[in-house]
Design goal:
The complex is a heterodimer of chains A (348) and B (392).
Chain A (H helix, E strand, L loop, with lengths): L4 H9 L21 H6 L9 E2 L5 H5 L2 E6 L2 E8 L2 E7 L4 E5 L2 E3 L5 E6 L2 E5 L1 E4 L4 E4 L11 H5 E3 L2 H11 E2 L2 E2 L2 E2 L5 E2 L3 H4 L3 H9 L15 H12 L2 H7 L10 H7 L12 H4 L14 H5 L23 H5 L2 E3 L8 E3 L15
Antiparallel strand pairs in A: 1-6, 2-3, 3-4, 4-5, 6-7, 7-8, 8-11, 9-10, 12-15, 13-14, 16-17
Chain B lengths: L12 H22 L2 H9 L1 H15 L3 H14 L4 H13 L3 H14 L4 H14 L2 H13 L6 H17 L3 H13 L5 H11 L14 H15 L3 H14 L6 H9 L4 H14 L4 H13 L3 H14 L4 H13 L3 H14 L4 H13 L3 H19 L6
The chains are: A alpha+beta (348), B mainly alpha (392).
């Protein structure tokens, strides 16, 4: 798969968000008016999609992590808020400072070495509280210490990583790290939010970011899919099999019930991007029953009512799926909503 | 063992020799396994046929190609069901440069053993020599589907054949895709490089037929393109700059460079398309690619004028219809987009991008069953598309 996928996994796949998110993170002046969302968004997984040195609770809690992958030994060591990623073959050791940690809890590191960017060969997984191979890297067989650092990224891969895990890090396809803000902040999605804020201060209410709420479900999938991967992107890349369970807009588009013109089935119909992801399956029942209920008003024709249960719909119809190989430390909810059968192969 | 040629020629004989050895075993096995009992009885009880076939085999083994051909021709006239005879006749005629006769013999052979990948591959080579490019393309593609390219060197020859067919058929971008596979697997002979140059310059010519006055242009273009395709963008840029300086008014050059950059350096690609249009302003393909590039950057509104020009210049161009449909779809004219996308579908029913756009259009219109049908079609097409270089 393309570069940066593992980083994307971390963006998407953490099991919970630490409560001690950086509440002090500047959000411009958006919070002056939009206090409710600005107070919660920085603590979401998207808000913490990237962590900078000195603000990394996972690494602070695990000051020395090691993994032996013959013949290399990987060490991730944190001291006084600074972390170094080291790889050694027993004779020589390369040590690279970690500047960008991708992921709210589980983390892969974007490393800069000799003018090149690498996706770290090993990642931190909270489920095992240890290092393991980065997802997708199990087939990499480095023959030199430099190769053992990780997967070298082409420029497009680098901008993709920074573009999704941070804000203001990419302009016109070029890295602009001097303006980087870690994580997904207001202007990442609400283009023009700063100009809007300044205009408001000047008494001008006419300058507003495009309204995302008016987008169709199809367009919202495309919008979120810029990072979470659209149907088109996954198809063009030919990513088939269980690994693509990470790409929710793609999976959702495959669902029989997905209707790009119906606001009841869209990313934001179920998820508020300004709030932490809700893990309780019952929470989502009302979303399903908006159509799949005899009481549902304006239910689409042929919307069936479940003969088995009236709650926890997602537990059956959106099965949990583990990533193959080294990705076993992650379980994702499959957004291809369907009637599942025992032992059926993973579709598409 | 068959000796098809005494001396290597145009790089094919090694392949054919190996190919023939493999085919002999395959064919013999097929006959023993599949020939009807009556046929076996006939071939053993008919003295004339038995004598002829034995003599033909002896002549072939002795290297007396002319006599072997004569005898095989008589033998298969007596017994047209003798598949092995047709095969030997086909390979010997190929060795004689008698491509028409070889094609005829292989056609008879394939009528008896339709899924014989080596015979399809060899007939495809013959048809390429005869200038029957559509037939050649069909046979070569089918041979690959049946496993003829399972060995890397054979794969190289077959993909090169397909690339040349596509160039002659004017399907230049598809040809470039085949050359890309070859270059990325280290195949960089002069013929391949020149073939790549021809495809990039939209010249429907075979590498061996390049006119003397175009040799330098084609070779330099091919070399620069091969450098880009092998991942050396800096070196490729330098080489292309040199070509631009030497041939400043040459059409298709900037387009070709932009096309090669499109996936990895989309903004540079767009600049190259714009430069191409300064040299040759009325080019539907370049207008379409420019619009497509702008669209992929998310700037569909800026793309729309070029998409419209593209359709005006060539309404029968599937790409133009697709791009205009896509731009209309993305700028809010969903219903308007359908006419162009449906037209594009009629022109290129297997084009993944057309189905992707249609899926989105139907979805936006709330026609979820149509959208889903298109999405499933997209998955099927993407799976087919994934196969080409699996064995390289």
């Amino acid at each position: 798969m393309r570069t940066c996928n593992a980083l994307l996994v971390l963006l998407l796949g953490c099991s919970s968000v630490l409560a001690q998110a950086n509440a002090a993170r500047p959000a411009g002046s958006c919070g002056d008016c939009h206090q409710r969302v600005v107070s919660t968004q920085p603590m979401t997984q998207m808000g913490r999609a990237m962590q900078l040195p000195g603000d990394n609770p996972s690494l602070a809690a695990h000051p020395k992590l090691t993994l032996h992958r013959d013949p290399y030994i990987y060490t991730v060591e944190t001291q006084d808020g600074q972390t170094a990623y080291s790889v050694s073959d027993g004779k020589r050791t390369l040590s690279i400072p970690i500047r960008w940690s991708m992921g709210a809890e589980a983390q892969t590191w974007l490393l800069e070495y000799n003018g090149r960017f690498y996706e770290s060969m090993v990642s931190y997984y909270p489920k095992i509280q240890a290092l393991d191979l980065t997802i997708g890297d199990d087939r990499l067989l480095p023959t030199t210490l430099e190769e053992a650092i990780g997967r070298p990224l082409v420029s497009e891969g680098v901008t993709t990583c920074f573009g999704c895990h941070s804000t203001h890090a990419v302009a016109d396809d070029q890295l602009t790290l001097q303006t980087l803000t870690a994580g997904v902040t207001c202007e990442h999605c609400h283009t023009g939010a700063s100009a809007h804020a300044q205009a408001i201060l000047a008494g001008d209410t006419s300058v507003t970011p495009p309204s995302l709420g008016e987008m169709s479900s199809e367009s919202i999938s495309d919008f979120c899919g810029r990072c979470h991967r659209t149907f088109e992107l996954v198809v063009r890349a030919g990513w088939r099999g269980p690994s693509n369970v990470r790409f929710q807009p793609y999976r959702l588009a495959l669902s029989k019930c997905f209707d790009g013109a119906d606001p009841r089935i869209s990313c934001i119909a179920c998820h508020d991007p300004h709030q932490k992801v809700v893990r309780d399956t019952v929470f989502y029942d009302s979303k399903c029953l908006a159509c799949h209920s005899r009481a549902a008003s304006h239910a689409p024709p042929h919307a069936k009512v479940c003969p088995v249960a009236a709650s926890s719909c997602t537990s059956c119809h959106m099965p949990k799926t583990s990533l193959p190989g080294g990705g076993g430390h992650f379980v994702f909810t499959d957004h291809d909503i369907r009637v599942t059968r025992p032992n059926e192969p993973y579709p598409f | 063992m068959i000796r098809v040629r005494d001396t290597p020629r145009r790089g094919s004989s090694t392949f054919i020799n190996r190919f023939s050895q493999y085919a002999c075993v395959l064919v013999a096995g097929c006959i023993l396994l599949t020939a009807p009992r009556s046929l076996v009885a006939q071939t053993t009880s008919d003295g004339t046929f038995a004598d002829l076939s034995a003599s033909a085999d002896s002549a072939r083994e002795a290297g007396d190609v002319a006599r072997a051909v004569q005898l095989y021709e008589k033998a298969v006239q007596l017994n047209p069901q003798w598949a092995l005879g047709w095969w030997y006749l086909g390979t010997l005629q190929y060795g004689n440069d008698a491509y028409g006769a070889a094609t005829d013999a292989l056609t008879h052979y394939l009528a008896l053993t339709p899924k014989a990948a080596p015979a399809l591959a060899l007939r495809g080579q013959c048809e390429l020599e005869l200038g029957q490019y559509a037939e050649s393309l069909r046979d070569l593609e089918q041979s690959i589907a049946l496993g003829a390219a399972n060995e890397a060197r054979n794969a190289g020859i077959l993909y090169f054949g397909i690339a040349r067919d596509l160039t002659k058929l004017g399907r230049f971008e598809e040809s470039i895709a085949q050359y890309t596979v070859l270059i990325r697997h280290g195949v960089r002979s002069n013929e391949v490089v020149n073939g790549l140059g021809l495809a990039g310059l939209h010249m429907a010519t075979l590498p061996r037929d390049i006119q003397a006055g175009q040799q330098e242009l084609v070779a330099a273009t091919g070399q620069a393109a091969a450098t880009v395709l092998s991942g050396d963008f800096s070196g490729g840029r330098q080489q292309f700059e040199q070509v631009f300086q030497r041939f400043p008014a040459m059409a298709w050059l900037h387009y070709f460079y932009g096309y090669l950059l499109f996936e990895t350096h989309p903004r540079e690609a767009i600049a190259q398309f714009q430069e191409e249009l300064r040299i040759a302003p009325a080019n539907a393909i370049v207008h379409a690619m420019l619009a497509w590039g702008l669209g992929m950057q998310g700037d569909y509104a800026a793309a729309l004028p070029d998409a419209q020009k593209s359709v005006e210049e060539n309404p029968t161009l599937g790409l133009a219809q697709l791009v205009l449909g896509r731009d209309q779809l993305e700028t809010g004219d969903v219903k308007g987009s359908l006419a162009h996308l449906e037209t594009a579908l009629g022109i290129e029913p297997q084009n993944l991008e057309v189905h992707l756009a249609l899926a989105k259009a139907w979805s936006e219109l709330g026609r979820k069953n149509d959208a889903r049908r298109e999405r499933l079609q997209c998955l099927a097409l993407a799976e087919k598309r994934a196969a080409p270089d699996a064995n390289m």
